[in-house]
Write a structure and sequence with these properties.
The complex is a heterodimer of chains A (282) and B (274). The longest helix of chain A has 39 residues. The relative contact order of chain A is 0.14. Helix content of chain A is 78%, strand content 1%. Chain A has a two-stranded antiparallel ribbon. Chain A starts with a helix and ends with a helix. With 274 residues, chain B is of the alpha/beta class. Chain B has a six-stranded mixed sheet, sandwiched between helices. Chain B starts with 23 loop residues before the first strand and ends with a helix. The relative contact order of chain B is 0.19. The chains are: A mainly alpha (282), B alpha/beta (274).
Chain lengths: 282, 274
Amino acid sequence: MVSDRLLHSLLALFAALAAGLLLLVVGFIAQEALGLLQQLGVGAFLFHGEWQPYAGRFGLLPMLLTSLLLMLGAVAIATPLAVVGAACINFYLGRHSAILARRLVEIAAGIPSVVYGLWGLTLLVPLLAAIKQPGASLLAGMMVLALMILPTIVVVVDAGLRALPTHYRENAEALAIRRSGFVFAIALPAVRGSVITGATLAAARAIGETMVVMMVTGNLVQLPGSLFDPVRALTANIALEMAYAMDEHRSALYVSSLFLLLFAVALVLTNQLLLGWRGRHG
Amino acid sequence: MGYLGDAMDQRQACHEPAAGEISLCTDQLCLSYGSKQALEGVSLEIKPRAVTAIIGPSGSGKSSFLCCLNRLTDLTAGSAVSGQVKVGSTEIYGTQRHDPVQLRRQVGMVFQRANPFPFSIWKNLALPLRHHGVRDKQQLRQRIESALQRVGLWDEVSDRLNTPAGALSGGQQQRLCIARALVLEPSILLMDEPCSALDPISTQRIERLILELKERYTIVIVTHDLAQARRIADHVALFWSFEGKGRLIEYGPAPQIFHHPTHELTGAYLAGHI
């Protein structure tokens, strides 16, 4: 009884500590950002395209849009591939190949992003440059990010598929439904929740990713006109300028961080919303 | 139409089916999983439009036998079947490769646990139909309604076809699974202990349903419950395990098996001595 209560208090303490730390970080960012935000108004950041910190112009729109497009593009490329991959591991590979494939995916999920960036820079960017200069572009960012987040989605969807009761397969067979029918009409729809969760987690990784986008997108602050345009993401901007930013410029970077934080919150809420909707209508 | 008497080694050739009826019979059926033999020399002819109960102790190969009848054994790696299973005029383990999909449309199956797919009631029934080419909304509706009516579920769920099937009670879920098997209009229905996870009232409901269904379908039911076999079976087959191998030891009309069994093991088993 006593040990139970002790454990409970300890757990509560640690939970409070973790939550407190997070709040501290958010509070700190907000405090650094709020002054400038109040002074210029949210509109000055959100609706203006010019990023000229020394002239006091802090339009984040091109970078916000770039970050958003990079994330959406990467998720759109990676999700279908990951779903097919997870289905393949579960229903088409033999037992040993499936184990091997799972290990490979887990390793791929753990590769540092800078390695993906390096790969993109040395292999993908020149390939794209052959199609259209300069190669470092929005498309390059989407593709490398897609590759980077792919294993995350595979792991989540694979876990969902593995948790499906084995008797679904027997039932489908007894109903004269072949394997392909089972995979696409029963198993994958049954793990829609996992697909949504996997895609959301991956989206959060993609929007927060800094190194990859810094290496392959060209870092030019502009509204992306085409997939082949070089662009700069919000995260890359912070990393590139934080070292020498002062005063208002520095605060503007904190405002960027605040927006990234809001993105993360929005992603979690979207996930909950989609899962909730699925629960009611699934 | 010779029943198998005492002699389990007696060969029983499969008869030609009567017109318009899909017959089901096995001849010297053996099943093994790897090096382990699960069934040995089972020959029996299932009577059409009647309930045949397969009884026997655990591990006597009853469920394995059932799985041979729709080739669900194919799913188990390392399983091998020899001997004959004839559905209608087709030898399903014959040399000319028989498509299990065709077979399973003729031979439906209901499992021990009610296991609807994690979708709505409607989708559970529409899914196999759509998969087999029924796209017309009107026709889908008609066949789904008729299947639900046949299992007595229509009145209970017609106003909530779009709610998740998992929200139904256990007995309702099992009846939904029976409807799902019937929606493809099979002629033979295999049931593997369909009531073992249900309460007595749901069990009674399903038993009544089985008695109704036998007017149209040939039913083979595996059951552990001897009282259930007495209540619903027209014919009874008793399986027994000899050194791990399941064999058929007695098969005949239910009254004969229950009142005048010929095999001594049958008498002892029914009396509860073993």
